[in-house]
Fold this sequence. Notes:
The protein is an all-alpha fold and 174 residues long. It has 2 domains: 1-52; 54-174, Isoleucyl-tRNA Synthetase, Domain 1. The protein has helices at 2-20, 25-35, 39-52, 56-74, 93-114, 118-138, 146-165. Helix 1 (2-20) runs antiparallel to helix 2 and helix 2 (25-35) crosses helix 3 (39-52). The radius of gyration is 18 Å and the shape is elongated. The model has no long low-confidence stretch (mean pLDDT 91). Belongs to the class-II aminoacyl-tRNA synthetase family. This is glycine--tRNA ligase. Keywords: Aminoacyl-tRNA synthetase, ATP-binding, Cytoplasm, Ligase, Nucleotide-binding, Protein biosynthesis.
Amino acid sequence: NIGQxxxxxxKQRLYVQLREKGFSHDVATLSxxxxxxxxxxxxxxxxxxxxxxxxxxxxxxxxAAVRVRNILAKASGLDTGKGNIDESYFQSEVEKELYHxxxxxxxxxxxxxxxxxxxxxxxxxxxxxxxxxxxFEEVLVMADDPLIRMNRLSLLAECDALFRxxxxxxxxxx
Length: 174
């Protein structure tokens, strides 16, 4: 398809321009993956990501994104019941907090992506980070009880869906 070849060429050119402006490979690649068809917005996203990439909270969030994806990959043979989260199976307050935070910020992130509001995206991620970090400190995802385990995997699947809205954060390294 000629249209796809033209888009690929333009993305390659934009990648080179972002690199020439001093953006790292990982930031340039993620920006293009999220919004590559809009060069100005890809630049603005790259600027925003570059401004937070070395902050501790962002690194913890990127690590959590990788951890979520890895746990789900290892559990791929198990039914995660995606979309079937049952709050009655939550055994800790942080599970409830994470569920409610994901439910609250997913539509915010969708709207922010549509309007290219990169500040709102970053502030939403900043709100999520302490909760997901606490979740991994306090909760054993692979619980012995299969219903609790499935519920927690479903929660992580929702978290992964949220992360995927803004690309693979795990690719951004200090």
